Every structure is written in structure tokens, then in C-alpha cells.
Amino acid sequence: MDRTASITRITSESNVSLSLNLDGTGETHVDTSVPFYNHMMTALGKHSLIDLDIKASGDTDIDVHHTVEDIAIVFGEALKKALGDKRGIRRFADVTVPLDEALARAVIDISGRPYVVCSGEPEGFEFALIGGHFTGSLVRHVMESIALHAGICLHMTLLAGRDPHHIAEAEFKALARALRVAVESDPRVTGIPSTKGAL
After folding, report:
1. For 147, phi and psi rounded to 5 degrees?
2. What tens digit of pLDDT does each residue of 13-50 get?
3. CA-to-CA distance for 176 and 166, rounded, in angstroms?
């Protein structure tokens, strides 16, 4: 089954074109117009093994928030579209990823019911300016936007961390590795992995 999706979303605030392949090798071509976000979305593709092509622009002269949010929305929508009826997937994943002093844990359920719990980030992280444009608060907002539009239950817990760059990157990589496991085909699963018969 072809598990790919391509979506373009144009608003007065941003222009986003995104395509992905869940059964890729982690090949990425990412130009979000926000340098640190390029780094994070490249890491997300690389470590999830999801091929990811993103081209985006927006009103970053005002703030990067709109462009960052809209890319996360489109990524979530594309993920949901590529998963189809979710037949044969592993569905659940629990992954812990270190980055130097930072340690992040992502637990996900591709349940069709969006829910997000983020905890453990140090006080003041939301105000940290990473890479000159990207605030720490955007990390949680990206996670929430992806989960809401993909229909994923996500628990992201920061277990340790001091440097804002390391914290953000550990969280993105934890999400990536969790997605890699959860969207993977499980040869032992026949049909849809739910007692309801639908996800």
C-alpha cells in the first residue's frame, strides 16, 4: 500500500507545501524559512525514517509563529492521510531519547483521538529564544498542532535538560523515534489494531 501524502495550504499568513512517505529512509528536503525549525523538521524526518519535503514561507517579518504552526498543521494532516485506515500498524510507541544533558520521552498512540500532555520543561523554557527566532513555547505548540491534526495521543515528558536547544531537539527526536515505531507495519497484526475495528 502506498503510504504517501502531499498537501498544500495557503493562507494570508503562510504558504506551505509538504509531502511525506511513511515508508521512506528519512530523506529530507526542508525549507521552512525559519532556520532552527529547518533543523528540527530535518531531525524529525531523519529519525522517523519518514521522507519529508517541506517548502514554506510566511509573514516571518511579523513573527515566525504563523509559519511554524501552519507547517505543523500540514504535517499532521499529511500524516493522517498517509496512514489511511491504519491497517497493520504497530499503533503504540514509547521512546526515550538523550541529547547530552537533555532526556526526553515520547509515548504515542495513533488512536484517532487527539490528546497532548507535555510536562517537565524547566521554568522559563517557553521564553527561551533558540536560533534567534524560535521560542521554547513553540515546541509544545508544534507537538499540539501535529497531534491534533494527525489524531494522535501524545505524552511528551522532559526528564532532564538545561540547554534550550538540547531540550527542543531531544523532544523532536523523541517524537520522531516514536513515530517510526508506531507507524511501522507489524507483520503479526492483521487488520486494524483496535477492539473497535476502527481507529
Report:
1. -65, -40
2. 999 999 999 999 999 999 999 999 999 999 999 999 99
3. 15
Beta strands in 100-166 (DSSP E): 102-109, 115-119, 129-130, 134-135, 153-160
**Degrees, nearest 5: CA angle 96-102-158:** 60
Amino acid at site 140: R
Angle 177-40-50 from CA coordinates, rounded to 5°: 45
Q: Across the strands, what pairs with 58?
A: 14
**What φ, ψ does residue 41 adopt, rounded to 5°?**
-70, -30
H-type helices in the chain, by residue range? 35-48, 65-83, 137-150, 164-182
Whether the Cβ atoms of residue 41 and residue 174 lie closer than 8 Å to each other: no
As a whole number of angstroms, the distance between CA 21 and CA 50 comes to 6
Residues of the chain with pLDDT under 50: none
DSSP 64-90: SHHHHHHHHHHHHHHHHHHHTT-TTB-
Cell numbers 498542532 label which residue?
A: 145
Report pLDDT for 1.
Answer: 76
Is 127 exposed, middle or buried (CB count within 10 Å of its CB: 0-12, 13-18, 19+)?
exposed
C-alpha grid cell, residue 144: 499540539
